[in-house]
């Protein structure tokens, strides 16, 4: 194991060796990798060179170098895109076995090296090959050391910064500085902190300015007002006798400092906190997460759950890569043949325009702008060499005026403006450094078009015309149908023109219709993040039927359900999908499954399945010749007839004659978790007997009063028959029960048989006179796949619906022999369950605790049910596609 001094000495020699290399990937990559590994005492042959992998689409790729478990290296020729190299290398990591997965991803173009920690997804800034000695410790894992460089995730860095800003926010607020003035004040402070660390201001100019204030903070407020005024005053209008310390600050423009704010009182503690903020390196903060940071600053609850609604760059890239970014990179690769083609491509991307109609703090616009600028940077490097004198502001054609947003709240829209400006500055710096220039594009000349207003009431074409617009992107509000305000509900119904089922739609659906209207007969493409509820249950027909039938929209790509979260403490878990759609786009269609597999699709339907456009609508009778399913009993008793085990025993002790009228009572929770409740069922109790039970009579009277006092007319009506239930369903013989709600973690919904003496609540679906064969089909993975595709959800849990799931399920046409085999295998499942007398169904069907023999029995049943349909499906999605095809045939 080499010492650090030996490694550093090797690094110096490595840098000298490669200082003036030609940098040709084909000819020199292997030697570069060997020499780099030898710096750390690693034999190059211990790794894998040109390691062949096969990606999710079946395409073969070659990893330049892989040292399993430690590092993956992807090389490019000198001057080529490290962004492209990173994307390529990162895609390769997804195809590796767990034991091969590296801790580090290193990309290089022989001039620069960039390292990413794949555990934290933090990328260290590029450094020159000549600076390797300074950075060897981040690659310490190669020499057998632990890395001595701490890679913090974006959200951790963001959290550190937020807490610092939050201290200032809280003290100002305590002193009565509130509302919009406080918001603007904090934006200005943030800009100054960022400007100092990124070269907009002279180094340490802002910190020195604060440091020269009185230690008790008494004059800091006036000094800040003077600074804000100077930042809003151009050079021609500045006082001739301006102090030297204020002369160091350039004119900013852009209305950021134009409003006159009230004086904010500072004290010694606040001054100290502001100086601590100056010591933090704000250049590490991506402008894309300013919004999340300010949410944590302005709202104490959000601060406790830092990052709960932070949109990670990874998720934004998930949306924009298949929408346009991957295609643009591919087109760039094809344009490298001649400078004329590159100029033509450059002109094309400079004309693209983007709209986020629910932009919030601008995350999607900021990341999209950054990615487009990085692509342009690669174009510029191909057209001009870095020794050529060029005017950066002339050759850079991507402008932030190409980006449009609509935001309901004023403060986030201001953050979006600032975030775009700061991202522009970061990329300008990157480009100008490459070409040996020092471009600081201030005062601000251009600005993103962020409109403050209600996106559902604004005509989007008043912001950017459909003839100019290229893409609509974003993450419209997640608000369920039952949680909208009156104003939001009215807006949604207005967009849907009060069409049938619109009242059950989530708020986000209105953005789909607005986008569909705008993209008619254009090449505009749309990419949205949404809750997965819009591709499940009743919402599917209400949203997607008008989209596909009225507006002729088709889905171009889709990410099936995934958890929208990040590494933040207290992270929000929202189950989401991503959908890209258009009116005229005719390119390839892809589906990304929940486990990351990529499916090349012929047609993506509203359930995000490769299949025909099919809508599974409510049906009151089963599609096939099977027994009808009903709901359990609904007492509407105010809890007077329902008892725990202890409560029932105490009641019977006081009134022994009631014993014979108690029946076991099960809902979804009781059935799955194996605990008992009891129901005092008096509906069949003779009046003469009931009158001899005074405690039971009190319960009956309490039920009558409960119903009579209800605001619901139907409930008031059944007050006249207080011993009966509102809904009664009590089969005479054995019957099948299916829980209405079940965890999505379970591969199989726990389904079972109950005897006639057990009463079920309306949280269980039941089928009287059901056979083992029917039980076998329903508990099979084929039926589970159908349920997962079409059922509604409660959060992420399955909501089994008789009208949507059961009544529409296309049962197979089977022979008597097949029916017998399925029945026998179904009985085997019940027999194995009965062995585990101390385990609940929750225990038996938890993926972590499911007994192997029970799992095997289910798998055997699954195979036999698949055979009944005439095929064994490799992917669940193929199964669902065939079931939908069969459903369409049977329903027609």
How does this structure look, described?
It contains 32 helices and 26 strands. Strand 8 (403-407), helix 17 (410-434) and strand 9 form a beta-alpha-beta unit. Helix 26 (772-778) crosses helix 29. The strands form five sheets. Strands 9-8-7-10-11-13-12-14-15 form a nine-stranded mixed sheet, sandwiched between helices. A six-stranded mixed sheet has the order 1-2-3-4-5-6, sandwiched between helices. It has a four-stranded antiparallel sheet with strand order 16-24-20-22. Mean pLDDT is 87; it is low at 302-309 and 566-572. The chain is an alpha/beta fold and 892 residues long.
What spatial form do the alpha-carbon principal axes imply?
A: globular
Distance between the termini: 73 Å
Residues in helix, %: 40-55%
Query: Mean of the pLDDT scores?
Result: 87
Tally of DSSP β-strands: 26
Q: How many helical stretches?
A: 32
Main beta sheet: strand number and arrangement?
9 strands, mixed
Task: Work out the strand percent.
Answer: 5-15%
For the biggest β-sheet, the strand order reads: 9-8-7-10-11-13-12-14-15
Low-confidence runs of at least 5 consecutive residues? 302-309, 566-572
Radius of gyration: 33 Å
Structural class estimated from helices and strands: alpha/beta
In short, what is this structure?
By secondary structure, the protein is an alpha/beta fold. It is built from 32 helices and 26 strands. The protein is 41% helix and 14% strand.
């Amino acid at each position: 194991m080499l010492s650090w001094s030996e490694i550093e000495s090797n690094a110096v020699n490595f840098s000298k060796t490669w200082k003036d290399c030609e940098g040709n990937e084909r000819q020199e990559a292997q030697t570069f990798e060997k020499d780099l590994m030898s710096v750390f005492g690693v034999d190059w042959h211990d790794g894998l060179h040109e390691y062949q992998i096969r990606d999710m689409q079946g395409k073969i790729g070659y990893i330049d170098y892989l040292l399993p478990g430690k590092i993956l290296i992807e090389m490019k020729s000198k001057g080529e895109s490290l962004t492209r190299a990173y994307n390529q290398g990162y895609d390769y990591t997804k195809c590796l076995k767990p034991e091969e997965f590296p801790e580090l991803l290193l990309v290089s173009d022989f001039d620069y090296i960039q390292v990413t920690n794949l555990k934290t997804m933090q990328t260290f800034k590029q450094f020159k090959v000549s600076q390797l000695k300074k950075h060897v410790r981040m690659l310490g894992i190669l020499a057998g050391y632990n890395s001595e460089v701490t890679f913090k995730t974006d959200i951790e860095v963001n959290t550190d910064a937020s807490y610092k800003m939050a201290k200032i926010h809280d003290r100002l607020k305590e002193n009565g500085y509130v509302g919009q003035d406080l918001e603007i004040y904090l934006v200005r402070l943030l800009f100054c902190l960022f400007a100092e660390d990124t070269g907009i201001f002279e180094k340490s100019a802002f910190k020195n300015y604060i440091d020269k204030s009185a230690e008790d903070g008494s004059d800091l407020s006036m000094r800040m007002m003077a600074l804000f005024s100077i930042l809003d005053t151009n050079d021609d209008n500045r006082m001739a006798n301006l102090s030297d310390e204020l002369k160091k600050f350039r004119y900013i423009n852009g209305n950021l400092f134009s409003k006159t704010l009230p004086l904010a009182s500072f004290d010694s503690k606040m001054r100290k906190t502001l100086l601590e903020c100056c010591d933090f390196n704000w250049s590490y903060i991506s402008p894309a997460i300013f919004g999340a940071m300010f949410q944590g600053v302005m709202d104490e609850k959000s601060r406790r759950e830092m990052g709960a609604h932070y949109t990670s760059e990874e998720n934004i890239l998930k949306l924009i890569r298949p929408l346009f970014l991957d295609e643009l990179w591919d087109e760039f690769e094809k344009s490298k043949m001649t400078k004329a083609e590159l100029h033509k491509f450059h002109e094309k991307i400079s004309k693209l325009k983007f709209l986020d109609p629910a932009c919030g703090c601008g995350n999607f616009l900021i990341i999209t702008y950054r990615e487009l600028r990085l692509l342009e940077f690669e174009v510029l490097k191909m057209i001009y060499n870095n020794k050529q004198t060029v005017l950066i502001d002339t050759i850079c054609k991507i402008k932030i005026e190409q980006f449009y947003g609509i935001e309901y709240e004023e403060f986030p829209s201001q953050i979006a403006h600032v975030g775009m400006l700061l991202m522009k500055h970061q990329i300008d710096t990157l480009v100008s450094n490459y070409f040996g220039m020092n471009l600081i594009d201030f005062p601000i000349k251009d600005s993103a078009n962020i409109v403050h207003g209600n996106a559902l009431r604004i005509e989007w074409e008043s912001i950017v015309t459909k003839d100019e617009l290229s893409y609509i992107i974003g993450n419209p509000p997640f608000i369920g149908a039952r949680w909208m305000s009156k104003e939001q509900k009215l807006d949604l119904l207005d967009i849907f023109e009060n069409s049938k089922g619109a009242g059950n739609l989530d708020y986000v659906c209105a953005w789909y219709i607005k986008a569909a209207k705008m993209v008619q007969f254009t090449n505009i493409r749309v990419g949205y993040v949404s809750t997965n509820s819009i591709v499940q249950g009743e919402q599917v027909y209400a949203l997607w039927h008008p989209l596909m039938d009225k507006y002729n929209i088709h889905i171009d790509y889709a990410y099936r359900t995934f958890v929208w979260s990040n590494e933040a403490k207290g992270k929000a878990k929202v189950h989401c999908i991503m959908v890209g759609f258009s009116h005229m786009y005719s390119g390839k269609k892809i589906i990304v499954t929940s486990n990351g597999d990529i499916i090349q699709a012929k047609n993506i339907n509203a359930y995000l399945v490769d299949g025909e456009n099919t809508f599974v609508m409510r049906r009151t009778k089963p599609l096939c010749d099977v027994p009808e399913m009903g709901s359990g009993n609904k007492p509407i008793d105010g809890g007077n007839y329902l008892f725990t085990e202890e409560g029932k025993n105490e009641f019977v002790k006081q009134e022994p004659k009631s014993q014979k009228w108690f029946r076991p009572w099960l809902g979804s929770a009781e059935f799955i978790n194996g605990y008992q409740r009891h129901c005092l069922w008096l509906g069949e109790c003779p009046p003469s007997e009931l009158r001899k039970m005074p405690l039971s009579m009190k319960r009956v009277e309490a039920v009558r009063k409960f119903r009579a006092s209800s605001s619901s007319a139907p409930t008031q009506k059944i007050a006249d028959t207080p011993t009966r239930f509102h809904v009664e369903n009590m089969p005479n013989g054995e019957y099948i029960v299916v829980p209405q709600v079940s965890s999505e973690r379970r591969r199989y919904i726990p389904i079972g048989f109950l005897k006639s003496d057990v009463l079920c609540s309306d949280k269980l679906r039941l089928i009287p006179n059901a056979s083992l064969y029917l039980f076998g089909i329903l508990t099979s993975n084929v039926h589970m796949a159908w349920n997962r595709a079409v059922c509604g959800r409660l959060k992420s849990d399955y909501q089994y619906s008789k009208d949507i799931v059961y009544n529409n399920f296309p049962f197979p046409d089977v022979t008597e022999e097949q029916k017998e085999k399925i029945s026998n295998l179904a009985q085997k499942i019940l027999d194995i369950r009965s062995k585990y007398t101390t385990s609940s169904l929750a225990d038996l069907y938890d993926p972590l605790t499911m007994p192997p023999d029970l799992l095997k029995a289910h798998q055997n049943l699954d195979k036999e049910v698949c055979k009944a349909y005439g095929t064994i499906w490799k992917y669940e999605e193929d199964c669902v596609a065939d079931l939908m095809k069969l459903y369409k045939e049977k329903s027609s």
